[in-house]
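=== RUN LOG ===
request id: a7f3
mode: sequence -> structure
chains: 1
length: 214
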Amino acid sequence: MILKVIPVGLFQCNCIILGDPATKEAIVIDPGDAVEKILKIIKKQGLLVRSILHTHTHIDHIGATTELQRETNARVLIHKEDLFLYEKIAEQASYLGLPPTKTMRPVPVDEYLTEGQALQAGKVQGEVIHTPGHTPGSCAFHFPKGGKTPLLLAGDTLFAGSIGRTDLWKGDYDQEIRSIKKKLLILPEETVIIPGHGPKTTVGLEKANNPFLN
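=== RESULT ===
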């Protein structure tokens, strides 16, 4: 598996590129900013981006989606419960004091993510885990054969030693804790977690040490 993690934008969102080295098919997750940087890596690796996935649709995770889609013609996927945020990217920018840009006109969504949905780029295979709480449509992407160990792209639901904030649009703390405990912490302890921001961790480390989960 080709795996590139690129912190982008003011909030250093982890944009992730997953690709099949044989077929060169790829998925981009959470292109929040810096589309030129993302495209440079895609070109260098010779990748064909099939899908642009979103763990959720806060502006720091979708800020470069419009530009990336126009450059790659990839399909855009979000969870339907987050459509209200996706469509109000300009309002999100205004709330956070960010200047309006051409990306404030989001491209249409091609497909809505659903629980258990299969994800694929060549031989890279995963599934969608719906993890509401940080936002109603928050999702994690699980790749059981993510290389030497299983891989979980957790978005802003679970961080190394922390959890996602729930004080923004339709966040729900109790729901987030349920999502983490019932859907993420049941995965094998060796599963490597790449969160939406910050360093990698593992399921085992978070079960043992995360103060929000004990």
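=== NOTES ===
The longest helix spans residues 173-184.
The mean pLDDT is 94.
=== END ===
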